[in-house]
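Here is the promised in-class demo. Please do not try to memorize the tokens; focus on the logic of going from shape to residues.
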């Protein structure tokens, strides 16, 4: 290894110009003053109010599916069923606790959605409650098919 690398040593350590590289003149090497460039976004995303028609519909559906989940869960628990979600199981000992859990879930979804709206994450603002609607609808379906 040492023998092979020593034979290339002078070539690798040479500090002369690259044979085919263009030579730089003294005028070209002087600094050039550049004008400042202001970058503007191509188009600002359309702003919307938080309580617009689309969000009202999405949040109404969120509240409706959470209310349905509350009703199905309460019915199943009163007929001897078991709560499968360990987080909800803590609140499932009373109807008031169960109602507080599902109302808190709805309020949490709306609050996080508002946070996303205020920070400019408008896609997340709408995706979060839609995902919650899907998950809650799945829980309601499971609760209705497995009493």
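The designed amino acids, position by position:
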């Amino acid at each position: 290894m040492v023998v092979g690398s020593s034979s290339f040593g002078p070539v690798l350590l040479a500090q002369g110009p690259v044979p085919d590289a263009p030579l730089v003149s003294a005028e070209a090497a002087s600094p050039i003053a550049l004008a400042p460039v202001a970058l503007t976004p191509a188009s600002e995303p359309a702003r919307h109010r938080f309580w617009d028609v689309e969000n009202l519909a999405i949040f109404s559906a969120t509240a409706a599916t959470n209310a349905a989940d509350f009703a199905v869960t309460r019915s199943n628990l009163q007929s001897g069923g078991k709560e499968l979600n360990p987080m909800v199981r803590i609140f499932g000992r009373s109807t008031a606790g169960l109602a507080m859990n599902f109302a808190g879930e709805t309020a949490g979804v709306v609050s996080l959605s508002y946070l996303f709206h205020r920070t400019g994450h408008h896609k997340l603002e709408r995706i979060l409650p839609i995902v919650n609607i899907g998950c809650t609808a799945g829980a309601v379906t499971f609760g209705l098919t497995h009493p």
